[in-house]
UniProtKB/TrEMBL annotation:
Gene3D superfamilies: E3 ubiquitin-protein ligase SopA. The lineage of its organism: Bacteria, Bacillati, Cyanobacteriota, Cyanophyceae, Nostocales. It comes from the Bacteria. Coiled coil: none annotated. Pfam families: Pentapeptide (PF00805). This is Pentapeptide repeat-containing protein.
Length: 126
C-alpha cells in the first residue's frame, strides 16, 4: 500500500491496516491518531512530525524508520521493532513498549515519561 492510498482510507474512517507493507513510504507530518498497524512492515517509513497518538503498533516492523518529533503518546507497541530507528524528540509518554526491540535506536531528547519498557531490548552502541 502506498502513502496516498493509506491516507485516503484513513480519511474515509478506516483505522485497521494490519500487516500492510508501508516500507519506505513518506507519511511525514500525517495525522494518524488511533491507527492500527498490527504486524505491518513499516521499515524505513518516514513519519517525522506525524501524530500517532494512541496508535496500535504491536509487532510492527519500524526498523530504520524516521520518527523524529513524532507524537507517539499512549501507543501500544508490544513486540514492535524500532531497531536503528530515529526517535529523536519523539513523544513516547505513557506508551507500552514491552518486549520491543529498540537496539541502536536514537532516543535523544525523546519523552519517555511513564513508558513500559519491561523486557525491551535496549542495546546502545557507544
Amino acid at each position: 500500500m502506498d502513502a496516498e492510498e493509506l491516507l485516503d482510507k484513513y480519511a474515509a474512517g478506516e483505522r485497521n491496516f494490519h500487516s500492510e507493507n508501508l516500507s519506505e513510504e513518506n507519511l511525514k507530518g500525517a495525522d494518524l491518531c488511533e491507527i492500527d498497524l498490527y504486524g505491518a512492515n513499516s521499515a524505513g517509513v518516514d513519519l517525522s512530525g506525524a501524530n500517532l497518538t494512541q496508535a496500535k503498533l504491536n509487532s510492527t516492523n519500524l526498523t530504520k524508520a524516521f520518527l523524529t518529533d513524532t507524537k507517539l503518546s499512549s501507543i501500544s507497541a508490544s513486540s514492535a521493532i524500532f531497531a536503528w530507528t530515529d526517535l529523536n524528540g519523539a513523544d513516547l509518554s505513557w506508551s507500552t513498549l514491552n518486549s520491543a526491540n529498540l537496539n541502536h535506536a536514537n532516543l535523544e531528547q525523546a519523552n519517555l515519561i511513564g513508558v513500559d519498557l519491561s523486557s525491551a531490548k535496549l542495546f546502545m552502541q557507544t
